[in-house]
Specification:
2 domains; 500 residues; Beta-lactamase family protein; 24% helix; Beta-lactamase; eight-stranded antiparallel barrel; alpha+beta; Beta-lactam/transpept-like
Length: 500
């Protein structure tokens, strides 16, 4: 799940993944129209950069473990149809001194799980069982209440524009508190806040709804469906949405941690089955590599095809953006950056695990990282991901802009992703100040970052930026009546100005 705010080395050899010969169900020819993105010519990666990656990542991970409360982590990188690197760091279990095994240790990818759900839903679109522009209620055995005359379309689920309030209480304290996710969803329908298709606000409920639609139209329980039609065809034999884990998967599951009094303390297994399709997966790095290889190969790995090339192109194509000049959502995937090359993927955070999957289709390159540890490992995950991108696809900072324009409204900005049934929590608002012309300071949960102007309403991150980037951006936009702020690294939300 995406969160509101953050709370020993083994090497794998270079290998090609040999998929099982199990095949997915035959797919019909129906494919959706794809919005055009910027031209995506093939991108070459410097052999020097590739050769330097292993030692570079070792150095970054040593820094993360020393400074970011990381108990253990895994990194896997794929390139041109092969696994380029697969390494484990730290411990899967600190108390027992069990090191992370990059081949066998399971991690919780959190909301990266949603990519399997969008894949499953696209299979239904291909087979003509689901229409992207149909009212979601068409496929449900309960009704999402209306707000005005515009229904929530299936398309709105893909692009996180259903206009729903966020909701909490999505985890169960223990296995005894678990109920079937379909029952929980029927009892916890979020409030409708704004018209669908008008504003991105990340929705765990919407993604879970997508999985339930798969279950309804396929006639198969969701965890059975993804195993039969995605995991087994790709040879992902150590990935599951089922909770609790059993057998070898349970035995090889990394332990979650929190930090108290400066020490890493083990936490109980987290149960996300209440919104299963949105984030309850457990997986190994080799399995995540198989999924990336299939997506980079236009839906096919070996003899197994899980999607048509047109469907993969649709998932990776632009759908909706909150800000005029920042990347937004693809269809299920998030757009991390538009060019140099275009990067799409998804982050994932549970309370104890922090993950990221990023692919560069034009470069035939992708990586998956996952950490377990304290809240600092949330930032560590982001820093490692940025370091890999900056090393492989370096960029230069944009020229500074010194033109004249009206200053943006300064003060508090509040995320549109929150539970509107509860009182707002001003302590989580962003605080925006302008210490000098063309420079803004963003304060979030006590952490301040500095941004320098690179265009009208556009600012680029300076604090903590590495040579080679990537360089995050923020944009002020909206109207006089509704000023807004968005970040390039957060295409799934927008921030509205809070009038004093």
């Amino acid at each position: 799940m995406m969160k509101y705010s953050p709370k020993t080395l083994t090497a794998g050899a270079l290998l090609a993944i040999a998929p099982l010969t199990v095949t997915a169900a035959p797919l019909a020819a129906k494919t959706p129209a794809v919005k055009a993105n910027r031209a995506a010519a093939a991108v070459a990666i410097s052999p020097v950069s590739l050769a330097a990656l292993p030692s570079f990542i070792d150095g970054v991970m040593a820094e993360q473990i020393a400074t970011r409360e990381v108990a253990g982590g895994v990194v896997t990188i794929v390139y041109k149809g092969k696994v380029l690197l697969s390494r484990g760091y730290g411990y899967a279990n600190v108390d027992k001194r069990i090191p992370v095994d990059p081949a066998r240790t399971l991690f919780r990818p959190g909301s990266v799980s949603k990519l399997f759900t969008w894949t499953a839903l696209m299979q239904q679109v291909e087979q003509g069982k689901v229409d992207l522009d149909a009212d979601v209620n068409t496929y449900l055995d309960y009704k999402i209440p209306a707000l005005g005359s515009t229904p929530i379309r299936v398309r709105d689920l893909f692009q996180h524009t259903p206009g729903m309030s966020d909701i909490g209480g999505i985890t169960a304290e223990n296995v005894g508190k678990l109920v079937p996710y379909r029952d929980w969803m029927k009892a916890h329908i979020p409030a409708r806040v704004w018209a669908p298709g008008t504003e991105i606000s990340y929705s765990n409920y919407g993604a879970a709804l997508a999985g339930y639609i798969v279950e309804r139209v396929s006639g198969e329980p969701y965890p059975d469906y993804v195993e039969k039609h995605i995991f087994r065809p790709l040879g992902m034999m150590t990935t599951t949405f089922r909770e609790p884990l059993t057998g070898a998967m349970r035995d090889h599951m990394a332990t979650g941690y929190e930090v108290k009094d400066g020490r890493l303390l083990a936490t109980p297994f987290e149960y996300y089955s209440l919104i299963m399709p949105a984030g309850s997966a457990s997986a190994t790095a080799p399995d995540m590599a198989r999924f990336m290889l299939a997506m980079l190969n236009k839906g096919q790995l070996g003899t197994a095809r899980i999607l048509t090339p047109a469907s993969v192109a649709f998932l990776e194509s632009n759908s909706f953006a909150n800000a005029p000049h920042l990347a937004g959502m693809a269809h299920g995937f998030m757009v991390h950056r538009e060019a140099g090359p275009r990067l799409v993927g998804h982050g994932g955070n549970t309370q104890d695990f922090h993950s990221n999957l990023t692919i560069a289709p034009a470069a035939d390159f992708g990586f998956f990282v996952s950490f377990t540890g304290g809240t600092g490992s949330y930032l560590g995950r982001t820093e490692l991901s940025d370091a890999i991108i900056g090393k492989v696809f370096p960029q230069k900072p944009a020229p500074r802009w010194t033109g004249s324009e009206k200053r943006p409204p300064l003060g508090g900005y509040r995320s549109n992703r929150r539970d509107y049934a509860e009182a707002a929590q001003p302590e989580y608002d962003l605080k925006i100040s302008m210490p000098a012309d063309h420079i803004v300071t963003v304060e979030n949960s006590g952490r301040k970052t500095s941004w320098e102007q690179v265009g009208p309403g556009l600012y680029e991150l300076v604090t903590g930026a590495r040579d080679g980037g990537p360089y995050d951006r923020l944009e002020f936009y909206g109207t006089n009546a509704d000023p807004r702020l968005s970040f390039g690294s957060q295409p799934h939300v927008t921030y509205h100005f809070v009038k004093p």
